[in-house]
Design brief:
six-stranded antiparallel sheet, globular, Jelly Rolls, mainly beta, about 220 residues, five-stranded antiparallel sheet, 1 helix
Length: about 220
């Protein structure tokens, strides 16, 4: 999807573009999130990604962007197969989430997902931890979308064969199971320069790190 985000004073406003297994965001949902956290005029936008499995999330990462997402359209993509989930911004991988293929893995691969987008007031947490409140005098807040594209397999009960690795589709072939060498270089640059928060490094929040934190995104 190509998005152009809310310009000007957008503090407290969150634009979300995400995949979810439940049309009502139910308690047992799987979910893959892009969330764009608004700002006060002149401050940078922050992009937050998250992964849910069976209603449990708390897998947040936050990144700075290397451009102003309010000035023009940029492409935000998710690659999801049985080996990895990759969040892309303008074809640059900003986050890689691996499947360790173990019974206790926190990897959503058992439910189909729908695609959603929303814009909502989250001024209790979205901008500087809730210190900056939404200025409703600046409403309406508008995000713009275009050029949506999706490739995938249609879910068929009880469990379609295309969910397993068949190599029939490009996104399920070996080249999509790992980052390419060029993508690894881009990802390394993102890791060095743009990561603001990584739950896998939050030792105050997690006394025992989630099991997937031991998996290398480079493998």
């Amino acid at each position: 999807m190509k998005l152009k985000l809310v310009g000007g004073d957008s503090a407290g406003v969150v634009t979300a573009y995400y995949m979810c297994s439940d049309t009502g965001a139910g308690p047992e949902r799987d979910e893959l999130d892009f969330e764009f956290l608004g700002n006060r005029t002149g401050e940078p936008y922050i992009i937050q990604t998250n992964v849910y499995k069976s209603g449990v999330g708390s897998r947040e990462m936050r990144h700075m962007l290397w451009f102003d997402p309010t000035e023009d359209f940029h492409t935000y993509s998710i690659l999801w197969n049985n080996h990895q989930i990759v969040f892309f911004v303008d074809k640059v991988p900003i986050r890689v989430y691996k499947n360790g293929d173990k019974p206790n893995d926190f990897f959503p691969n058992e439910k189909p997902m729908y695609l959603f987008s929303s814009i909502w007031n989250a001024d209790d947490w979205a901008t500087r931890g809730g210190l900056e409140k939404t200025n409703w005098k600046k409403a309406p807040f508008v995000s713009t979308y275009k050029d949506f594209n999706v490739e995938g397999c249609q879910w068929e009960e009880p469990y379609p064969t295309c969910v397993s690795t068949t190599t029939k589709y490009w996104w399920d072939q070996y080249g999509a199971w790992h980052l390419t060498e060029a993508q690894k270089k881009d990802f390394a640059w993102v890791e060095r320069n743009l990561v603001i928060y990584d739950y896998c490094k939050d030792t105050e929040r997690f006394t025992k790190m989630p099991v997937e934190c031991s998996l290398s995104p480079w493998d």
